[in-house]
Amino acid sequence: MFRKSVFIMLFVCLLATFAIAADPWDNQLEWRSTAGDANWYNPANWSQEGDNPCPPASEGGPGSHFYCAVLPNQPGPRLGYEDAPNATCSQLQLNPWDPTSWGAQDVNLTILATAQDINCGSSINVNSWSSYDSYLGTSYLASRAIVNVYGGTVHTQNPPNQNTLNGLRIGGGNDGIGLSYGMVNIYGGEVNVPRVEINFGEIGLYGGTLIINTDPNFSLRTDHPLQSLNLLKVNGGTFKLLGDQTGSLNPLIANNHIVCERGTIGTPTFADGWTTLVSEVNYCVWNPQPLNNATNVHYKVLNDVNSITLSWSASTLYDADVNHNVYFG
């Protein structure tokens, strides 16, 4: 009887030790931008939750065993500097919620055109971990988590699982219904994941390639209270899914969940084991603010809720060096 009790106690202790070791919050790093720059590889920009020290920049910044949480601090991190083009973490989370700001500002992460290999471990969670509601009043722009990809290969390693956060998960909090808004904008490079799940947010595909490498694993929630804001914008680039997914994409196109703002949305085609969707895109500048023929436009001044900042969206990634004619009447 005594030996059996000792065995059971040792077994329970081993289970407890394993559970503690497997805690995803162990070795967590939180982005604080304390160095005042956007350098992902600068250990001074991270505060530490675990017992291990943050690795130095010479070792690529956060190590592969670190869970990296990007909280609302400015400036947001940038990955892919020429002297350190690769980055690795065990899981990447972006969330505007923070005890010191309560979601008062956006969270931004940028992957530069000079990036090469960005390995995000098990998952990329864009405002999907906490059920904090970033949607306030009539605006979902109150505080968002935003990822901008300009180059490199961004990927997650683990196989897909309907019950875990593997792959790319956007918005909605833990249950997918929350008003936590997330955005992923792809201008170049490749995002290659086993699963994409849009609960409350959008993907803007302006260039590059978005690949879902398992079949079937694309989910866009249409039963959300604000489901009309759940969008895949194919404004350029290529959307590629393993297997024949035409039957699931066509209804989303018909119901304006998959759209093209810069031309005509394409038709999904299936060939050689892959479904591909591209659009016929007008590569002129687009999305002007104020809109064409707008009236009662106010110059940008403080405390004027009707004022607007002159802006437009560039036609290509490198369009910043091109001149444009702007007419006022």
Work out the strand percent.
25-35%
Over all CA atoms, what is the radius of gyration? 22 Å
Distance separating the two termini:
93 Å
Q: By helix and strand content, what is the structural category?
A: mainly beta
Which series of helices and strands comes N to C? HEEEEEEEEEEEEEEEEEEEEHEEEEEEE
Strand order of the largest sheet: 2-1-3-6-9-12-15-18
What is the helix content? under 10%
Q: Strand count, sense and closure of the main sheet?
A: 8 strands, mixed
- SS summary, helix count: 2
Low-confidence stretches: 1-25
Tally of DSSP β-strands: 27
- Dominant shape: globular
Residue-averaged pLDDT: 79
Describe this entry's structure for a reader:
By secondary structure, this protein is mainly β. The strands form five sheets. An eight-stranded mixed sheet has the order 2-1-3-6-9-12-15-18, with no helix packed on it. Helices cover 9% and strands 29% of the residues. It starts with a helix and ends in a 16-residue tail after the last strand. Residues 1-25 have low confidence and may be disordered. A hairpin with a 2-residue loop joins strand 23 and strand 24. The chain is globular.
Q: Layout of helices and strands, plus pairs?
A:
Layout: H1 2-21, E1 28-31, E2 46-48, E3 67-70, E4 78-79, E5 87-88, E6 91-94, E7 107-111, E8 117-119, E9 123-126, E10 145-149, E11 153-155, E12 167-170, E13 182-186, E14 190-193, E15 196-198, E16 201-205, E17 209-212, E18 218-220, E19 231-234, E20 238-242, H2 246-254, E21 258-259, E22 263-264, E23 269-271, E24 274-277, E25 280-281, E26 286-289, E27 311-313
Parallel strand pairs: 1-3, 3-6, 4-7, 5-8, 6-9, 7-10, 8-11, 9-12, 10-13, 11-14, 12-15, 13-16, 14-17, 15-18, 16-19, 17-20, 19-21
Antiparallel strand pairs: 1-2, 20-24, 22-25, 23-24, 26-27
